[in-house]
Amino acid sequence: MTEYFVKLRYYPGDALEEIKERDLKSLSRKYGVQISYEKIENRQMKEGLQMENTLDKKIEDISQEVITVSGDQEGKFSNAIRALYKKYRCPRTVYSLLGSNEAGEKIAKGLMNIFGGW
Amino acid sequence: MMKVLALNGSFRKMGNTEILLKQALMGAESQGAQVEIIRLTDYKIASCRGCGLCLFRENVCQVKEDDVGFIFSKVKECDGVILGSPCYFLELTAVIKQLIDRCWILGHQIGKMKKPATVIVPYATRGWIPYISVQSTLLLNLMGLTKINETAICTQGISEVVLDQEAMDLAYCMGKEIAVAIGEKDFTYKGEEGVCPSCHDRLLRILKDRETVECPTCGIRGKLSMARGKIRVKFEEKGWADNRFRPEVIHSHYTYHIAPSKDYFLRTKEERKSKSQKYREYLPG
Question: Which residues pair with B242 in a beta bridge?
């Protein structure tokens, strides 16, 4: 059985709407996949802007919201990713799927091409 | 004394662009401005090398042997800009794009300069100018300027624009307008309203979901509908906040989309090296 596992990394300003855990739980139930959420916040207000030095940090340590999705059925997994992209927009950087497995990344990346806006 | 600088993206001396820019500068001068014109093709504007040093070490550009620093310093010391360029093939001239590519180093100052700019584009055939606004908005925003007006003027042969009194009057008025805007510190948009509430252009991109449209210049998204036979675009409120030229958005872009790529670059070093080996050996040069 193939396990699909993906980490969607949303950086400040990326998501089209606020990511709420209760919405993720509802999507998890609807699509029959596991979804978890983690928020990393390292910004500080300076000169009217939320500032953070990200140049010399590990990608995993900078401010971001990480939605982790896993499942063992391609169709359900794919539909869940599609729903997340429609709701929040797809993550935007080349490193935004870091930590995903190959099967999950392939689906998540394919759907990015549809919802990513290029 | 206020200074108004005209940037000319045309190679042609005494062509329509130069004439229209000079006419606009006369308008600015009538309001007390000190004026100057720069023909961009008289200066060396080298290609961006894509080295990324300006992004990873703020304010360092590796290209030092050209005149881009001089052009940016001229923009910095003036109070307002009139940008002119002919449109040959759907967009502005190559020198404008060359300058846009060199603006990475200025990205941090978007929205900070508080200076107005106006745009005049002579072109020959109606329907052949879809991207002129994209490029002018991009260049002006990257240089920290605020576009307050723009116009495209249909004219063709060298210096023929002088035969079009309406166009000449318009250019003069736009020059006056920029001087007045500087004096009154009023940088609101004074041109024809378009569709995008930010850049005022009417260009839209349909996303692959076939449900969403996007202003390709600003990146704000919305939905299309029809009302009484007219196309309407409703931009999302959050989409509006996503306008890529807002200082907060550009700051986030640099901080979260660009700077962390250094870590990704470093951690993929070995894999990149081994996978790119065959390309180093193939057609070397």
Answer: none
